């Protein structure tokens, strides 16, 4: 079982869950986004948004949190391979942060489309 196809997949899932837990436990940016995600879920429950709107909302939450997780991994990798200041490292980190920014802008637009009609 240990080295079987299924055993490896189960072990891989365990590592992934551990990674998600580490992100939530140690990364302030992910913690902020998690609080925001819970807040919009409460808003969704309060305004009784439709099933389609829940789906768009979860896609937006997933987009932002996954991008932030990858950005965190990229920063950790950059700091590991080159702990000192280097323009190239700065460029790589800026690009990774830019991806999070794009995801956050898209998520904000989606939230606007969902909640604007309920609030105004
Ligand atoms: N080693 C480095 N060499 C050059 N520029 C760097 C370096 N480390 C960070 N920077 C610059 O500082 C910015 C912030 O980097 P940093 O690693 O502190 O990320 P952060 O956004 O503060 O994330 P976190 O708060 O999660 O650490 C980068 O986008 C980059 O422009």
UniProtKB/TrEMBL annotation:
Q: Which UniProt keywords apply?
A: ATP-binding, Cell membrane, Kinase, Lipid biosynthesis, Lipid metabolism, Magnesium, Membrane, Metal-binding, Nucleotide-binding, Phospholipid biosynthesis, Phospholipid metabolism, Transferase, Transmembrane, Transmembrane helix
- Segments passing through the bilayer: 30-48, 54-74, 95-118
List of residues binding ATP: 15, 27, 75, 93-94
Q: Which organism is it from?
A: Christiangramia salexigens
Q: At the top level of its lineage, which domain of life is listed?
A: Bacteria
| Gene Ontology biological process terms from the UniProt entry | phospholipid biosynthetic process
| Intracellular or extracellular location(s) | Cell membrane
Q: Where does a divalent metal cation bind?
A: 27, 75
Q: Which family does it belong to?
A: Belongs to the bacterial diacylglycerol kinase family.
Chief location category: membrane
Q: Where does substrate bind?
A: 68
Cofactor binding comment, as recorded? Mn(2+), Zn(2+), Cd(2+) and Co(2+) support activity to lesser extents.
Its Gene Ontology cellular component terms are: plasma membrane
GO MF terms listed in the record are: ATP binding; kinase activity; metal ion binding
Q: Which Pfam families match?
A: DAGK_prokar (PF01219)
Renumbered to this chain, the signal peptide range is: none
Active site at which residues? 68 (proton acceptor)
* InterPro entries reported for this sequence: DAGK, DAGK_sf, UDPK
Identify this protein by name: Diacylglycerol kinase
CDD domains in the cross-refs: UDPK_IM_like
Cofactor(s) listed in the protein's UniProt record: Mg(2+)
Q: How does the entry describe its membrane topology?
A: Multi-pass membrane protein
């Amino acid at each position: 079982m240990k080295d079987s196809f299924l055993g490896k997949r189960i072990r891989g899932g365990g590592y992934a869950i551990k990674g998600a837990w580490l992100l939530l436990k140690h990364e302030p940016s992910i913690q902020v986004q998690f609080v925001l995600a819970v807040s919009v879920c409460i808003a969704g429950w309060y305004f009784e948004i439709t099933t389609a709107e829940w789906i768009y909302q979860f896609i937006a939450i997933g987009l932002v949190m996954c991008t932030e997780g990858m950005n965190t991994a990229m920063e950790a990798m950059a700091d590991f391979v080159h702990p000192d200041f280097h323009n190239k490292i700065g460029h790589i980190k800026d690009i990774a942060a830019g991806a999070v920014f794009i995801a956050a802008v898209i998520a904000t637009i989606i939230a606007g489309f969902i909640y604007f009609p309920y609030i105004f």
